[in-house]
Give the backbone structure.
Amino acid sequence: MSIGTAKPEVTVTVPARAPARPGLPSPEPGWRVWPRRWPRWAPYAAAAWGVGYAAVQVVWAAAGATVPWSPQVAYASGVQLALAALALLAAGACLATPRPPARRGRVAVTAVLAVAVPVFAMGMASLPAHVVTLASLSGVESATGFAHVLLNTVGLALLLLVVVSHRRRLRGRCPRCGAEHTGDGSGPLVHPPASVASRRTRIQVYLLMCGLLPWAAVKTIWTLGGDALSVTAEKWREENAGGSGAAKALASAGIDVTVLAALAGIFLLLGLMYPWGQVFPRWTLLLTGRRVPRLLPLLPAWLSAIGLSVYGVVLVIYAPLSAADVLPRIKPDGAFTSSAGITWMVLFGGLAFGGLGFGLIAAARSYAARTRPVCAIAAATDATRGN
């Protein structure tokens, strides 16, 4: 055989483990993969919540339990039964979202979810007040009221997950990341680098934060021993004599516990706007340089913002209408000795709660957009197209 006709040698390299093809389940441990598959389990979790929520409401209505919506208003048994019916409808709508039905079915599912989300959002509006009460070690005023708020909070979180994944499915996008790609969306995610909120968002949030100043100033005057808005320092101390030891200790240092809670809200706002809310800074010691879990700031921001913004708007509207005699005048209560003083404080409270609530909404929207990850397969596809 001639040398010119010799075939070249071919070297074949066999990998020790064949790489997983795109779209197949990740070989990682289940505790890592499970959160990635939230579009799959969220509808079923929301449906289970709906059934449990309806059962609790029916039991409360049958037993005549007092479930407060506000300190002066409790849910009527008829309202509780209506909430139970809505929860069951929402459960059925959630079960229909993994495989979107025909056009009429989609309209019905959308209508049910559009009603359920704001209703259950109103049911958890008092969550910030309960958090402040628990943080001050003052105990729980109503066990059923607190349980009702927690049930609504869990349900709202699950319903929002279902709504997001459902909208993305209808648009033909990945229900987890919202991008257009193949596969089941259970692979790893690619996160964008840390960034600062836009200048417009920062200005908007800082202006809204200014709404805290009048309310915090009056509270600080009282705790420091001064008189303001027809309330004397002595009367203020008498009204707060039944507080927890921690609240009394803070008051002795001139710090009101609700002002301290507002400062925690400001800390959350700043974290949502600046890079240290996306990557742990140096002062976090062992966590330095690690990526902040996206839901760590977003969950408290969204859950607090809903109640604060709604409550703030109600107070800001009610106070001037009451002063103008369009609505019944606010009568002096507690430490207040004049109608004008308590009306001003209601207005200041509305500016504070509304400013903090809408500030959290603006900052959380920016944070969610700046930190939204995409599935790795989508990022690889975009990189290939770019080349």
Summary: The chain is about 60% helix and 0% strand. Residues 1-27 have pLDDT under 50 and may be disordered. Residues 306 and 344 are 23 Å apart (CA to CA).
